[in-house]
Design brief:
The protein is mainly α. The chain contains 18 helices and two strands. A two-stranded antiparallel sheet has the order 1-2. Strand 1 and strand 2 form a beta hairpin. The C terminus is likely disordered.
Length: 485
């Protein structure tokens, strides 16, 4: 199979991985609150369960990223990580107690650590100018899962039967469903995912060029052989010898392609000259990590608040919450498609600034209208819908801009590890966000006030560091890259 087809199938498989992660989130989140209530769990257990998933991913991300940087292999890492997703979701399906449910999210979260390896793989195999487009497509795949997930929930809520000692109902069925999907994905990865490198593309290009040269030379030699000179003629002997020589020369060129890297460079560790302080304690890196933390903290805090809020004010159940997440998924996908178009025309820092403006507007709206809803049912519902719409609208801008820019200002050789650190910072935010919101669902002024303060701090940081939020200019890959890193 040629390089281009392998590349397309591999990127398609990566899209499926993020699609399933979105489906899992959308299938489990609308029902986990009621599930915990059936197990007599206290309200803070909702925050604990959501945070446990992020906590294990926080620890696993840098480890999987370090592994991929050392081996330049992501396929076996993804297969290994998915085993934890399978086991964790089956534990969620068993659901004997609230502690088993908590442990199930802890185990499943380890599987998300493979995301750092995938982002490192994408960074190494995409050009800087195409990176925002690729990252937007990958993130849109996850949002597509968030859109599709609630549709599955509509059918899963109808389940009510036994499988041996296990009860399959609207609360346990999401775990069994996701367990089966992750098992199917393992086979897709086995057959449709390849660990290719930029050198593979160069070899493929050189091989095609060599074949074209051989064809041209053979065509030039054809007139030397007359139609009546079938055997024994001088022209025939010369033609055969020439053709044999061409094949032999072609074989030699094919065996040793020119673009192979020097042995000492290929065998050297990517962490040989790596310095964590030099890599992460830079102004622009700190700003992007702060953007990752604050936006995810606010997002997960609001997500944790949404289901108890809709139950309290609007009496929403699983069906209504699933429809709400479905509509949000449509909005986010549209946002990612727009950001994909916009990133080709403006710089990432402009996209990031637009996203921060939208997030500030959203938080101000929630602080004014959702902290203490006024009016009748219709007015409160309208306030809630506008707040959620504004919050979801800003996410694609911030997410794509900070991921793409982070991949450009950090070393390409250690992208797996650095992306793991970035995702761990996000994981820490998704731990603290639900914990903060879970204990303050009855005091929204304090909860939203802190979120507004963090956004104001991030906005100030970005304004001060705006000039530094650009990709560094490298002189040459072979000489300048290491010094720039």
């Amino acid at each position: 199979m040629d390089y281009r087809r392998k590349r397309k199938l591999t990127f398609f498989t990566i899209g499926l991985i993020f699609l399933l992660s979105g489906i899992e989130y959308a299938v489990i989140l609308p029902t986990i609150w009621r599930y915990l209530q059936t197990l007599n769990a206290a309200p803070y257990f909702l925050g604990l369960s959501l945070s446990a998933f992020s906590f294990s991913g926080l620890l696993a991300g840098p480890l999987f990223g370090f592994w991929s940087d050392r081996t330049h292999s992501t396929k076996k890492i993804i297969l290994f990580a998915n085993v934890f997703e399978i086991v964790g979701n089956f534990m969620y399906f068993m659901g004997y107690s609230k502690w088993l449910l908590l442990c199930s999210r802890l185990v499943a979260g380890i599987g998300t650590g493979a995301g750092s390896s995938i982002f490192g793989f994408l960074t190494r195999n995409t050009a800087p100018e195409d990176r925002s487009t690729v990252f937007a497509a990958v993130m849109a795949s996850r949002q597509a899962g968030l859109l599709i997930g609630p549709a599955f929930n509509i059918f899963l809520r109808l389940c009510n039967f036994q499988i041996g000692p296990f009860t399959v109902n609207k609360y346990t069925s999401p775990g069994l469903f996701m367990c089966l999907l992750w098992i199917l994905l393992q086979f897709v990865i086995l057959f449709l995912y390849w660990d290719f490198t930029p050198q593979d593309e160069t070899c493929q290009r050189n091989r095609v060029e060599q074949e074209e040269v051989e064809v041209e030379e053979e065509e030039e030699g054809k007139p030397l052989v007359g139609p009546s000179e079938l055997t024994g003629s001088y022209g025939t002997v010369t033609s055969v010898q020439s053709r044999t020589s061409l094949v032999a020369n072609g074989d030699v060129t094919h065996v040793s392609p020119p673009p192979s890297p020097p042995p000492e460079e290929a065998n050297s560790s990517p962490f040989k000259n790596f310095s964590a302080s030099r890599e992460f304690l830079r102004e622009e890196v700190v700003v992007l990590l702060a953007a990752q933390f604050i936006t995810l903290f606010n997002q997960t805090a609001l997500e944790t608040m949404v289901t108890p809020l809709t139950q309290k004010f609007f009496n929403f159940g699983e069906l209504e919450n699933s429809i709400m997440y479905c509509v949000c998924g449509v909005e986010v996908i549209a946002g990612f498609l727009f950001v994909r178009w916009l990133s080709k025309r403006v710089a990432e820092r402009v996209v990031l600034a637009v996203g921060l403006i939208l997030c500030n507007i959203s938080c101000v709206w929630c602080l004014i209208f959702l902290a203490n809803p006024q009016g009748g049912f219709a007015w409160q519902l309208a306030e809630f819908i506008i707040g959620v719409f504004l919050q979801v609208l800003g996410l694609p801008f911030v997410a794509v801009a900070q991921v793409s820019l982070f991949s450009k200002i950090t070393s390409e050789k250690t992208q797996g590890f650095t992306q793991g650190i970035r995702r761990s910072v996000g994981g820490l935010a998704t731990i603290l966000g639900p914990l903060w919101a879970g204990g303050l669902t009855s005091n929204l002024y304090i909860m939203l006030g802190l979120m507004m303060g963090l956004l104001a701090l991030l906005t100030i940081m970005m304004v001060v560091s705006y000039e530094r939020l650009v990709a560094p200019v490298t002189v040459d890959d072979s000489t300048g890259t290491e010094s720039e890193d």
